[in-house]
Amino acid sequence: MTATPAVEGWFTTGPEPALVGSRCTTCTTLYFPPVAPAGFCRNPACDGEEFASTHLSRRGRIWSYTDARYQPPAPYVPATDPYQPFALAAVELPEGLTVLGQVAQGYGVADLRVGAEAELVVEVLHDELLIWRWKPVVELGAEADQ
Asked: Is the pTM of this model over 0.70?
C-alpha cells in the first residue's frame, strides 16, 4: 500500500517537503492552511478573493513546545497500546506564520528549546497516511541523527 497525505494540498512530499500556503493576490497576506477555492481574505482591511499557492519555508525557530500527556479523543487513533505521549512544537517560519505540528519520531520535549531551529519532515502515520512533523536541527558537533 502506498502512503498518501493525511490532508491533501497542505504539504508536498519528496526529498524537500514543504507546507503549502495561500497568498492573497490583493494584499499579499499569507495563510496556512491554504485558503479554500471559494475563500476570501481574512485581513479585515482587504476584500480580496483570489489567492496564489505558495510553498512556505522548510525551516523555522521553535516558538513554543509541549507534550500530549493525555490521549486525545476520537477520531484520534493512538500509534501504540498503551498510549505513549508525543511532543508538539509551534514553529515560527521566516514568513511570520507560526505552525503547530507533532515533533518527528524519536524526539521529545527534552530535545527541544525555544529559539532552536526545526525543519519540516514528512513521516508515515499508521502505515498509510503521510503527515508533516517538525524535526529539531542538530547543531554541528551534536549527535547527527537519532
From this structure: yes
